[in-house]
Amino acid sequence: MFIGEYEHTLDAKGRVIMPVKLREEIGEKFIVTKGQEGCLFAYSQNEWKNFEEKIRTLPSYTNRNARDFIRYFLAGAVECELDKQGRFLIPSNLRKHAMLEKEVVIVGVGNKIEIWDKQEWELCGNISADEVAENLADLGI
What we know:
Helix content: 25-40%
Strand order of the largest sheet: 1-7-8-4-3-5
Shape: globular
Order of helices and strands: EEHEEHHEEHEEHH
Distance between the termini: 19 Å
Number of domains: 1
Number of helices: 6
Number of strands: 8
CATH architecture: 3-Layer(aba) Sandwich
Strand content: 25-35%
CATH topology: Chemotaxis protein chec
Oligomer: single chain
CATH superfamily: Transcriptional regulator MraZ domain
Largest sheet: 6 strands, antiparallel
């Protein structure tokens, strides 16, 4: 399970260091794609296979929402690989989607990793304890 919050800097080539504590679980090769709320999602190979299996069950021939969902997550997906320094390249289209320029926050959120622009993370990612408490009942917790 991915946990934790890590701040790193994107280099001039669009590479960022994968935090050491997340490297073992994500693996040498992993998938990065568009996320929600303006971030990127990164999945280990195994979690990506699980995600693909769920996508295959969607009624893509008969349901426009299913097709839109599939396009959103698969069209921009790319396999990334860690270099010897633990860095990986985020393609320009994904950097643009997540508005990544320099400072990034890498967040472990269970079965995946989220990659955020630091300013966006501060705006969207910092939820108050009161907001969390309000939502617990809706989530059945």
